[in-house]
Amino acid sequence: MTTKVPTKIHTLGFPRMGEHRALKFALENHWRGDSSAAELETTGAALRERHWAVQRDAGLDYVTVGDFAYYDHVANHIQLLGCEPARFGFEGTEPELARYFAMARGVHAGHDHGADCGCTTAAATTPGQPALEMTKWFDTNYHYLVPEFSATTRFRVASERLFDEVTQARLAGHPVKAVLLGPLSFLWLGKAADIDRLALLDQLLPVYESILTRLKALGADWVQIDEPILGLDLPDAWRHAFAPAYWQLARSGAQLLLASYFSPLQDNLRLACQLPVTGLHVDAVRAPEELVGVTDWLPAHKVLSVGVVDGRNIWRTDLDAALARLRPVVAKHQGPLWLAPSCSLLHVPYSLGADSTPATQDPEVNTWLAGAVEKLAELRTLQAALDGQNADVAWADNRAACRSRRTSPRVHRADVALRLARATADDDRRTTPFPQRQAQQSLHLKLPLLPTTTIGSFPQTSAIRAARAAFKRGTLDAAHYRAQMEAEITHAVRQQEALGLDVLVHGEAERNDMVEYFGEQLDGFAFTANGWVQSYGSRCVKPPILFGDVARPAPMTVDWTVYAQSLTTRPMKGMLTGPITILQWSFVRDDQPRSTTAQQIAWAIRDEVHDLERAGIRLVQIDEPALREGLPLRRAGWAAYLDWATRAFRTTASGVADSTQIHTHMCYAEFNDILPEIAAMDADVITIETSRSGMELLQGFGDFAYPNSIGPGVYDIHSPRVPTVDAMVALLRKAASVVPVERLWINPDCGLKTRGWSETQAALGNMVQAARQLREELAEA
Q1: Residue 313 — left, alpha, or beta (φ > 0 → left; ψ -120 to 50 → alpha)?
Q2: What is the average pLDDT value for the chain, to the nearest integer?
Q3: Dihedral angle, C-alpha 229, 233, 238, 239, nearest 10 °
Q4: Gap between the Cα atoms of 660 and 656, Å rounded
Q5: 176-190, 714-728, 767-781: lowest mean pLDDT where?
Q6: CA distance linking residue 161 with residue 76, whole number of Å
Q7: What is the Rg, in whole angstroms, of the alpha carbon atoms belonging to the chain?
Q8: For position 13, what pLDDT does the model report?
Q9: Residue-wise DSSP of 313-359
Q10: What's the gap between Cα 239 and its chain centre?
C-alpha cells in the first residue's frame, strides 16, 4: 500500500532530561551553587544536540526545536513573550536564566539575582516573592508554571533562546520544525485577576507574528503551533477567536502545523480543519473515531499529521491495528500524510529498549514496552509499510510482542475478579455521618483547636538514598537496612516533637516514591531501572508499570508505622497512596476499563487500612492528589469518571470504626467544579494546596459549605523559600474566614521529601508558631 507522496514522520516533542537525567543533576548542581549558568547552558546545548541526533538517526524528516526547557516550556513562553510578572520587580538587567528560576522557584527576601543565581540564597536588594503557581498540564502528571496576566500586561519578543536553538539545529545540519505553544492556549492556561484573558489576544498576536517571521527567516521549515485547548469545551468567544487570530498569523508566511492532542476535537473539529494553516495534527490514540471526520473536512492540499503512536503510555504499538486505522485515511486524504506520536514524548521514558540494561527485571514484560526512542522506531516501521518498503523483521517482532501480552497468563487472576464480583453497594460507605464521627474522633485523639500536621514525607537525605540503593544492590543486608531506616524514622519523630506538631508522621524514609513504593509490594506491577519521566523542574518520577490484576500479598506499611507510634505518645498518621493516584501515576494497562483497575487497587489498599487500624493506628491518610487530573478533558465524560473514582476512594476508606479518622490530600489543581464529588468521598479531613494561590482555591470550599474538615496548605514546599510567621498567619486568617475553626487544620501544601532539613525545620517552626498565634487571637476574641 502506497501513498501519492512519501509519508513523513516527526515527533511533537522529546524528553528533556536525557537518557540518564543529565539535566536534572545539572540543574540541582546549579541551584546549589556548584556550577555556573554557563556550565548549565553547556549541558543543555549538548542534550539538545544528542536528542536531535536521535531523531535524525531514527529517520525523522524534521527535528523538533523549542521543546527543550530548563524548568517548563510554558515558563519559556513567559520569557519569550516578555510577560514576566511585575511582582518580581525585575529591572531587565538581571540574567535571563536567573529571572527564569526566580519565577519557577520563588525569591528569598533580599535576593540580588547575581550572574549565576539559582535563587536559593539570601542577598541584599529585593523583597521575597513566592514562585509562580503550579498546576497540572491538562490531564497529565506534568506540572506547568501558570502565567500571570493583568490589565498592565504587555507583550514583546523578549528572549533569543528559541531563535538561538533553531540556529544551533540548523548549524548541525538538521531540517527544523520549531514548536510554539499557540497564543490562545497560552492565554487560556494563564490566570488574571483584573482582566479577561482573551482581551489580551489583540496585543499578543503581533508578537507571535513577529516570532513566526523570524523563525522562517532563520530557516525553520515548519512551525508546530500547539493549541491543545481545541480539545476542551471552549466558550463561544474563545472558539470564535481562532479564525481571525490564525488569519493574522498566516501573514508571517511560515508553514504552520496546528497541533491538538489529549482529547477529541468534537465540536471544534471543523474549525480546526478550516483554519488557515498548512497542516493539522490530531490525536488518533485518544480520538481514533475522529479520523474519518478529519479527512472529510481537511482540505486535500493540507498536511494531515496522524498521532498514531501513544505518547502517553509505554506499551508497544500494535502495528497491525495502527495500519488498519491508517488505511482509510490514506484512501481518503489525497494530500501529504505525516505520522507522529499522539502528543509530545515528554510523558514517557527516554528508552525502554531491551539492550544490555533491560528495562525491568521481568524479561516477559520487557518485550511489551516502548520508550521515546522505541516509539520513533515504530513510526519508521509504519512509514516503511505505507511507502511499500520492506519492514518484515520489525513487523514480525512487533506481532510476537503484542501476542505475548494478549495471551500471558500473568495478566488475569480469577481470585481478584471474584472479589470484585462479590462487592456490595455498602462496601464503599461509612454509615455514620461526619459530625458524629468527628465527635468520636475528638474524644479519642484529644487534639487542640487548629491542629498542626504535615502531609507525610520528610527530607530524603543522601544517607537515606544511599542506604536504599545499597539494599537494592544487595550490599546492605535487611537487618542493617531496617536499623538505618528506623534511625531515620526516630530522627523524624523527635524533630516533629521538638517543633511542637500535634499529629505526627513517620517521614517515609523507606519509600522511594509515593506510588512506586506501593506498586513494588502489590501483585500486577513491574518496575523500570531507568524509566524516569519529568514531573516538574528537576523533579522526575519513575512510574510503575501496571500490567496485570492487582492484589496485596502482605501488609506494606504497618510495621514502619507501628514502630513510629511506639516512639511517641502523640497520634501517628498512617500514610497510604490512594487508588486513583496509583492508577494515574502508573503506566496503566489498556486492555480493560480503567474503572476496573481502580477497583482492584482500592480493595488492596482497603486491606492495608484495616491492618493499620487493627495495629492501633487511628489516623490514616489516603492521598489522592491525582483525582482531579483524571477527569476527562470533555465534561461529558466527567460524571462517569467521578462516579467510579470516588467509589474507589470510599472503598479504601470504609469498614473502619467511627473513631478512626480518614485523611486525604490533593494538590495543584482546581477543585471548585468537582466539590460535590470531593464531598462525596467523605474523608474526615482533606488537605489541599492553597498557598501559591493566596488561599484562592479555598474560597470555593467555603462557598460550597464543604461539610468536613479542611487543612489548607499555608506554605509552598516546591520552593526553597521559607515563609515568615506573619505571612502564614495572614493566610490562616483568610482560611478562618472561610472554614469554621473547629474544622480547620494547619499543614504545608505537600510532602517535604524534596526539601532539606534546615529549611524544613525553619518553615515548620514558623507554621507551628503561626498556629499558636492564631489560637491566641481566637481565645482573646
Answers
A1: beta
A2: 93
A3: 90
A4: 6
A5: 714-728
A6: 9
A7: 26
A8: 98
A9: --BPP-HHHHHHHHHHHHHH--S-EEEEESS-GGGS-S----SSS-S
A10: 27
Per-residue pLDDT, averaged over 300-323, amounts to 97
- 780: which 3 cell numbers? 482573646
66 neighbors 11 (Cβ within 8 angstroms): no
pTM above 0.85, yes or no: yes
Tell me phi and psi for residue 340, to 5 degrees.
-160, 165
**Over the stretch 647-690, which tens digit does the pLDDT of each residue have?**
999 999 999 999 999 999 987 566 778 889 999 999 999 998 87
C-alpha cell at 346: 515528554
Q: Is the confidence at residue 108, as pLDDT, over 90? A: no
C-alpha cell read off for 297: 473536512
Residues 6+ apart with CB under 8 A from 780: none
pLDDT tens-digit readout, 127-182: 689 999 998 899 998 999 999 999 999 999 999 999 999 999 999 999 999 999 99
Dig out the grid coordinates for 154 from the structure: 504587555
Question: What is the spatial distance between Cα 373 and Cα 159, in angstroms, rounded to a whole number?
Answer: 30
Distance between CA atoms of residues 34 and 155, nearest Å: 34
- How far apart are alpha carbons 309 and 313 in whole angstroms? 9
Amino acid at 660: T
Tell me the C-alpha distance between 383 and 392, whole Å: 13
451: cell is 491542629
pLDDT value, residue 128: 80
Write down the H helix ranges in 446-527. Answer: 462-473, 478-499, 516-519
Q: Where are the alpha helices (DSSP H) in 571-695?
A: 579-584, 594-614, 638-653, 675-681
Per the DSSP assignment, residues forming a β-bridge with 662 are 620
Whether 110 has a pLDDT exceeding 60, the answer reads no
Contacts of 235 (CB under 8 A, 6+ apart): none
Cβ-based neighbour number of residue 542 at 10 Å: 17
Tell me the average pLDDT across 690-697. 71
Residue 237's contacts (CB-CB under 8 Å, 6 or more residues apart) are: 198
C-alpha closest to that of 715 among 754, 756, 672, 767: 767
- Grid cell, residue 276, equals 488557515
For residue 443, the surrounding DSSP H or E stretch is helix 434-445
CB neighbours of residue 26 within 10 Å: 24
Active-site residue flag, 51: no
Distances (CA, A) of 511 to 485, 518, 681: 10, 9, 26
The average pLDDT across 569-574 equals: 97
Whether residue 578 contacts residue 548, with contact meaning beta carbons closer than 8 Å, is answered with no
Pick from 317, 185, 401, 15: which is nearest to 306 by CA?
317
Strand pairing of 685-688 and 619-623?
unpaired
Q: Does the pLDDT of residue 714 top 60, yes or no?
A: yes
How far apart are the C-alpha atoms of 24 and 27, rounded to whole Å?
Answer: 5
Rounded-to-integer distance, Cα 654 and Cα 622, Å: 12
pLDDT in tens, 251-308: 999 999 999 999 999 999 999 999 999 999 999 999 999 999 999 999 999 999 999 9
DSSP state of 112: -
Look at residue 358 in the predicted model and tell me its pLDDT.
Answer: 79
pLDDT tens digits for range 22-72: 999 999 999 999 999 999 999 999 999 999 999 999 999 999 999 999 999
- Banded pLDDT at 613 (limits 50, 70, 90): very high
C-alpha cell at 115: 550572574
Rounded to 5 degrees, what angle do the CA atoms 99, 694, 714 make? 100
Give the C-alpha separation, 595 to 747, whole Å. Answer: 32
| DSSP conformation class of 8 | E
Closest listed residue to residue 244, CA positions, set 220, 211, 271: 271
Closest CA to 697 of 652, 648, 725, 734: 734
What is the helix, strand, coil percentage profile of the chain, to 5? 45, 15, 40
